[in-house]
Amino acid sequence: MITPYDVAKVRADFPILHRLVNGKPLTYLDNANTTQKPQSVIDAVADLYTTYNANIHRASHLLGELATRAYEEARVKVKTFINAADAHEIIYVRNATEGVNLVAQTYGRRNIHAGDEIIISTMEHHANIIPWQLLCAETGAKLKIIPINDAGELLLDEYAKLLSERTKFVGIVHMSNALGTVNPIKEVIDMAHAYGVPVLVDAAQSAYHMPLDVQELDCDFLVFSGHKLYGPTGIGVLYGKRALLEEMPPWQGGGDMIATVTFEETTFNDIPYKFEAGTPHIDGAIGLGAAIDYLTTLGMDKIAAYENDLMAYGTGVLTEVPGLRMIGTARHKASVYSFVLDGIHPYDVGTVLDQEGIAIRTGQHCAHPVLQRFGVPATIRASLGLYNTREELDTLVRGLHTAREIFGE
Amino acid sequence: MTAESLSIDKAQEEIIEEFDYLGDWTERYKHIADLGRKLPPFPEDQRLEENKVKGCQSQVWLSGHLSGEQIIFDADSDALIVRGLIALALRVYSGRTPEEILETPPEFINKIGMSEHLSANRANGLQAVIKQIKRYAVAFQARTETA
Known about the structure:
The structure holds 2 protein chains of 2 kinds. Chain A is of the alpha/beta class. Chain A has 2 domains: about 5-30 and about 300-405, Aspartate Aminotransferase, domain 1 (Alpha-Beta Complex); about 40-295, Type I PLP-dependent aspartate aminotransferase-like (Major domain) (Aspartate Aminotransferase, domain 2, 3-Layer(aba) Sandwich). Helices cover about 40% and strands about 15% of the residues of chain A. Chain A has helices at about 5-10, 40-50, 60-80, 95-110, 130-140, 155-160, 185-195, 215, 240-245, 280-300, 300-320, 345-355, 370-375, 390-405, and strands at about 20, 25, 25-30, 90-95, 115-120, 140-145, 165-175, 200, 220-225, 235-240, 260, 265-270, 325, 335-340, 360, 360-365, 380-385. In chain A, the strands form 5 sheets. In chain A, strands 4-10-9-8-7-5-6 form a 7-stranded mixed beta sheet, with helices on both faces. Chain A has a 4-stranded antiparallel beta sheet with strand order 13-14-17-16, covered by helices on one side. In chain A, a hairpin with a 2-residue loop joins β1 and β2 (about 25). The longest helix of chain A is centred in the first third of the chain and has 20 residues, at about 60-80. The relative contact order of chain B is 0.18. Chain B has a single domain, classed as Sufe protein. Chain: A. In chain B, α1 (about 10-20) packs across α3 (about 80-95) and α3 runs parallel beside α6. Chain B has 6 helices and 2 strands. In chain B, strands 1-2 form a two-stranded antiparallel ribbon. At the A-B interface, α12 and α14 of A face α2 and α3 of B.
């Protein structure tokens, strides 16, 4: 039996959506920044602290056992969510950013040397630029950039020209936070693999909009953040292929990441614990597990279908706003409308929309190079989540008309 | 009619009275946008990195020079709301002596009914401009004392 996507029922699961902002109902369209949390996630975190809080992997008592089990069950949920081969390939980190830094500082430092090349794209978030710049500065490696066209799509021909024996790593965003472009990630990975080059996928924006299958993609690393996946802040995931993770040196040292320690020598624990030094974000991991349960129950394919339909509706009503120029018009796009209004500073638009209870983001979206590519200092970005409605997009359009009325010449 | 002809306190009172006549937030924003449009052009030779005010989401420039005993300020922003808020700040603080500037807190910000409409970021932007104005006053005061 096919159950239709009931957005009213979904909205009822998110308590924050029922508050007022500046006297108006909240219209939350800043999901690419962070998403709101369903009650089940909030309850999962509260339940830990209310009924079974203890440190994990160390306690010899029942609470410790319960907390450890919940923490590790969440890891299995992540594994299933992205279809990893093994839960030990799931490393908890703080966020997608930390995942990229971990790979750059461990895999990168060991395997990338002077004269080697790392390929990323013009549309990367700073999280997938700066860690590689730091590594290049340290090792003498070079950063190569895949250009994009005026629609905001990767130029795969140019990418093919950049790949060579010097290429030692490819880091690529699955879905652009500033443009909404969904990249042909499988093709990007296959092309790198033809040169034996490993690929890291930044799935921070895609993980909550579409089903992910790391085995089918055959990516070597993949990162995403819990807080965009309707889970808590401060928890993220680094997926890596077992063979690569086992060969990588640890990053941070401390408790739980070791097997034996003497002052002369330390032997390290197995993956994933080798990379999880110190007491981790236990409630974050458990909350992330609850978020994944929530998404799985709704069905990622159904969420994607609903959002795609909503996306098309929004593109239609927004392009009718006079003077609106969409930045990023890729054929394959999800969830993000990045735009400018002729003659009005994005910041001024944001000010007016805030008065109307509409939450969007204005600015450069931690992706300065891609905005430079389009020659705009900043954009207004509205981004969809699984609870947004057509009515909310209509509210956004009305807010933009108000902004034009106030700021128009 | 110019700000120079009013005392610094009178200039603030005038702004507060002006906003008393305005209705809801859209009217207030329209008025601020109008003030922003009327802000005199910023001298292009002053559009320097050192004249950029840090701590603002939009780009903001501020420069000041002494004219007799008074400091004249020029300012600009690429966002209209910010330009309007800066115009208000200049009506109060431009053409004043360093002493007047340092003795006068920016009471108008809270009294024009905008503080609840300015997000923390935006309020900080205006505060950053006023802080910079006060820094100029301190610097010019020190210079005139040692001269």
